[in-house]
Write a structure and sequence with these properties.
With about 325 residues, the protein is mainly α. The chain is built from eleven helices and three strands. A three-stranded mixed β-sheet has the order 2-1-3.
């Protein structure tokens, strides 16, 4: 990742919601609660998926990877945000800003690909149930997850390098609560058309293409579900697919509104709240969506807790 000599070694000021002190207090409470729910909820899903043999399936393998992504994503943003909310200083070092920008972008793009992989898994499970274990074999699952984690590194490196090289003429105030591309682009004192064009092009690849895969998968699933006469199986499919669709709607809705429109047309306050929603709130909602709507996960948690109590008694 390249560095701009003009800015290297200089701290950035993360303005966040500092113009609204009353809002900052409320936000700090929401951030703490959301982060705790994110840590507990996603860690629970990872542990349960690993410990319970009944959840050693492709669906829960992908779900545990999604939970790991959400944990890493929140941890990239939240600790620095809390330091700035609770302390007098709102600064972040140049190196810290670059790392935060890179990892947030990389993990966000990875989630786009992983959600598409999960949609394909649901398509295979619903439309090809007899061949599901052959199609979604462990080798293919590992390859798809590894590809989702690795294919985004080059994208994040390119966008991060181009964005940090844009001249800022000494501007240090980032009008957001973490180092995100739209806020950094607005600090530029020269044309940023090249960066915006690259971001839009990569947005098509990492946002719209995976979203198209998801929509096509669910279009085929919907047609298949309409033919099912068994009410019990129909409801089970609706529950598992419904959870994934809810997460997709929350994630893609905010991400597309942030990255697939001209940066000059976006309003600062609207941008902050959108960013706040998909970086802080969504990772805490994902485990709730999957556990509250999923009987398998709830049953697995009960089995593990019961086994722990029995071992403690004996």
């Amino acid at each position: 990742m390249g560095v701009n000599n003009e800015s290297y070694g200089t701290d950035f000021i993360l303005l966040g919601f500092s113009d609204r002190p009353q809002v900052e207090r409320i936000i700090s409470v929401v951030v703490v609660i959301s982060y705790l729910v994110t840590l507990v909820g996603n860690s629970t899903i990872i542990l349960v998926s690993y410990l319970d043999p009944q959840l050693h399936t492709p669906m829960y393998f992908f779900l545990s990877n999604l939970s790991l992504l959400d944990l890493c994503y929140s941890t990239t943003v939240v600790p620095q945000m809390l330091v700035n909310l609770w302390g007098p200083r709102k600064s972040i070092t140049y190196g810290g800003c670059v790392l935060q920008f890179f990892f947030a972008l990389d993990l966000g793009a990875t989630e786009c690909l992983l959600l598409a992989v999960m949609a394909y898994d649901r398509y295979a499970a619903v439309c090809h149930p007899l061949h599901y274990t052959v199609i979604m074999n462990p080798r293919l699952c590992n390859q798809m997850v590894l590809a989702a984690w690795l294919f985004t590194v080059g994208c994040a490196t390119l966008v991060c390098t181009l964005t940090m090289k844009v001249p800022r003429c000494g501007h240090r105030e980032v009008d957001n609560f973490y180092c995100e591309m739209p806020a950094l682009i607005k600090m530029a004192c020269a044309s940023s058309k090249i960066v915006e064009t690259v971001v839009f092009s990569l947005g098509v690849i990492y946002l719209l293409v995976p979203l198209s895969v998801i929509l096509i998968s669910y279009g085929i699933i919907t047609r298949a579900v309409m033919r099912i006469k068994s009410t019990g199986r129909w409801r089970k499919i609706l529950n598992t697919c419904g959870s994934h669709l809810t997460v997709v709607t929350l994630f893609y809705g905010t991400a597309i509104s942030m990255y697939m429109k001209p940066q000059n047309n976006s309003k600062s306050q609207e941008e902050k709240f959108l960013t706040f929603f998909y970086t802080i709130v969504t990772p805490s909602l994902n485990p709730l969506i999957y556990t509250l709507r999923n009987k398998d996960v709830k049953s697995a948690v009960k089995r593990l807790l019961f086994a722990k109590k029995c071992s403690a008694v004996s």
